[in-house]
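Sequence, please.
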């Protein structure tokens, strides 16, 4: 049992790491060609240690590249999410400012109309009081 664990540790820590390092320097075209060659082989053929090691290198490299791509995509998603949240916050702020700008002229215009009407009402009330006083004076 200990021998099996030791062997798995060597494979995981040494062979796969070396395989990944070796395969990272191959182009995608080379890797694809190697994969096609493996697929084209007769499935009844027995593979020797070197062939199986190459397959492991190929798989290890692809896994390493995929892991890097996944990590890069995760970073891009995180950055895009941050940018989206910032843009949404900025948009909300601009909408509030625009709403305030639209409300202010209306409010100011409405206040002007109210003041004008209040002055007119006051003037009319004063005029009514003057007329009433003048009628009372005439009636006396």
């Amino acid at each position: 049992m200990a021998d099996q664990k030791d062997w798995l540790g060597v494979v995981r820590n040494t062979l796969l790491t070396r395989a990944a390092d070796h395969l990272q320097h191959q182009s995608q075209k080379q890797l694809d060609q190697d994969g096609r060659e493996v697929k084209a082989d007769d499935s009844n053929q027995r593979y020797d240690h070197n062939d199986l090691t190459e397959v492991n290198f190929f798989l290890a490299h692809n896994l390493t590249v995929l892991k890097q791509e996944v990590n890069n995509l995760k970073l891009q998603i995180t950055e895009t999410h941050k940018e989206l949240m910032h843009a949404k916050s900025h948009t909300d702020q601009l909408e509030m400012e625009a709403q305030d700008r639209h409300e202010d002229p209306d409010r100011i215009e409405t206040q002007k109309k109210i003041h004008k009407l209040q002055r007119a009402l006051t003037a009319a009330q004063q005029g009514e009081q003057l007329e009433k006083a003048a009628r009372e004076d005439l009636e006396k």
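The chain has one domain: 2-26+47-139.
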